[in-house]
Structures are given as C-alpha cells and as structure tokens.
Fold this sequence. Notes:
This protein is mostly beta strands. The chain has strands spanning 2-7, 10-12, 18-26, 28-39, 46-51, 57-59, 67-72, 77-82, 91-101, 108-112, 116-120.
Amino acid sequence: QVQLVESGGGLVQPGGSLRLSCAASGRIFSVNDMGWYRQAPGKQRETVASITMGGSTKYGDSVKGRFTISRDNAKRTVYLQMNSLEPEDTAVYYCNARVRTITRPLVADDYWGQGTQVTVSS
C-alpha cells in the first residue's frame, strides 16, 4: 500500500554535512506526522527529529542546533539536513510516517523506510 524510500546516506568526515530524503508513495490519502530515527550497533533506537503536517518540529537533545527537519507536502517527502556531523552520529537512519491510505482514509498507520547508513569518520 505504502512505501517509504530513503536516500542520501553515506560516509562523511567529522564536521561535514549530509542531507537525507524520504519519499512516500503508494495509494496515499494523506501523510501526517513524519520523523527520523536512528540506531547504532549495540544501542537503542532514538528519535532524531519529527515534524507534523503543519510543520511543527521537535529534535532530540543530541542533535538540536545541528540538524534540521523539513518536509515538502506536495512531494510527500521529508528531509533531514545534518550539519556539524560527529562520529557519534554514525548509525542507520530510518524514516517513519503516519499515513492514511485511500482504502482506509480515516485510520493512520505507521510505515518505515528501509534505513540508510550514515558513517562519520576521518
């Protein structure tokens, strides 16, 4: 019904920048809240940032001031601009979206992207 496709991950040096993208497609009625999560080996999954349909944002303490989440509703895409990257940011980053489908437009379900690796190393 719904697919979230992520892109933009890769290898970057400390202090560098990356921009992640996540595009939703399928039989979509609307895309509500969206967010980015990350998980490093041996660590619990943590929330990086989230954004509502209206554009209200929240950030995890570890990324506040360095990362910016945004969305383009016409493209059904959420972005994560990551600046001043640190080795501690190394993780697999996952996109999440609450989506109402054409089949069931009154119910919002969670969908996840496939994950994209971000490695910060010199």
